Amino acid sequence: MPDKVVHFEIPAEDVERAKEFYKEIFSWNITSIPEMNYNIVHTVEVDEKFMPKEVGAINGGIMKKTDKITSPVITIVKEKTQVGDMGFVAYFKDTEGNILGLWETIKKS
C-alpha cells in the first residue's frame, strides 16, 4: 500500500481520558514516554524493533467501531455514508472534541 500513515498526532486536554477512549474503541496499545511528555500508539502488534508484524491497511468495520461509541461526551457527527462505489465514511467527535473519520472499503465480488 503506497503512502502508509506512519505518524499522527491527536491533541488532548485530558490525555488519560483520551488514551482510555482510543484503547477501548480501537484496541490500540499506548505507551507513555513521561520524560518527553508523549505517548506512542501501536495500532497493530509490533516486533522488538517496533515494526508491524503483519502487512495491513487502514480500513474496516465502521459499524463495529461506531456501535462502541456510546458515551454522552462522544457523538457521531456523520452517520455511515456511502462514497460512490469505493466505500463508506463516518465521522465522530472524541472525548477531546476532535472530529475524526472512519473509512470502510466496499468489498468487490
Short description:
The protein has helices spanning 15-26, 62-66; strands at 29-33, 38-42, 75-83, 87-93, 99-105. The protein is of the alpha+beta class and 109 residues long. The chain has a single domain (15-105), classed as 2,3-Dihydroxybiphenyl 1,2-Dioxygenase, domain 1 (Roll).
Q: How would you describe this structure in keywords?
A:
109 residues, alpha+beta, 2,3-Dihydroxybiphenyl 1,2-Dioxygenase, domain 1, 3-stranded antiparallel beta sheet, two-stranded antiparallel sheet, 30% strand
Describe the overall structure.
The protein has 109 residues and is of the alpha+beta class. It has one domain (15-105): 2,3-Dihydroxybiphenyl 1,2-Dioxygenase, domain 1, CATH 3.10.180. The protein has two helices and five strands. The protein has helices at 15-26, 62-66; strands spanning 29-33, 38-42, 75-83, 87-93, 99-105. The strands form two sheets. It has a three-stranded antiparallel sheet with strand order 3-4-5. Strands 1-2 form a two-stranded antiparallel ribbon. The model has no long low-confidence stretch (mean pLDDT 81).
